[in-house]
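lol ok so funny story. i was supposed to be doing the assay writeup but got distracted and ended up predicting the structure for this chain instead. priorities right. anyway since i did it might as well share w the group, maybe its usefull for someone
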Amino acid sequence: MITLTRLAAAALLCLTATAASAQTGPEAAIKKSLEPRLGEGIKVDSVTKTPYGGLYEVRIGGDIFYTDAKGDYLFVGRVIDTKTMQDQTKARVDEINKIKFSELPFDSALKMVKGNGKRVIAVFEDPNCGYCKRFRQTLNDMDNVTVYTFMYNILSEDSVTKSRNIWCTADRVKAWDDWMLNGKAAPPAPANCTAPHEKIFALGQKFKITGTPTVFFADGTRIPGAVDAKALESKLASIK
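and the output, tada:
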């Protein structure tokens, strides 16, 4: 009879062998060869062999690049499947940048409900962002949607002040729309009122949000930029 000790030892040996194999595989060799050439402080998170063209996927943060089997060349661009015209690179970037939508701190957002509110999105916006103001008009014209707005202050120093003034009003959503749609500023916030700026800023950094607006959907995917109504409706319709 095989004892538990022998089973544990066998399992440990198997894990060790697997780890050793991973460390000596071509992906590890490519990472070791490529990483020092990319510049100081740049870390390669993973290298994975792709099913197309003998390329290897190089993941650095939320970005995807490609290299050859020796790591001699770096390919920057998108891989398109010519049979389906699917953008393979975009699909992978969307996958690795997914978030857990349900875990967003909704109590730190402005909540707008239109119609039945069944379709839900979250958007990170800066009060000084022109593209955000244009996107706000797009949202204003939509129906049957719930929008959680996180005031992500990254464009200028007074973005924090403007967001705090809006957060500290009696009707935050109205104050936000007054400013974003009509240019009507909120009154100065009381001295004892605090806004969740630090919390939202840290969250945006964690999600690697580098521009506003950035829209997140219930499936965890995102679209950066002021997407138009047609593209937004199409994306919402694709979410099951």
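The longest helix spans residues 4-24. The chain has two domains: 29-96, 101-238.
back to the writeup now i swear
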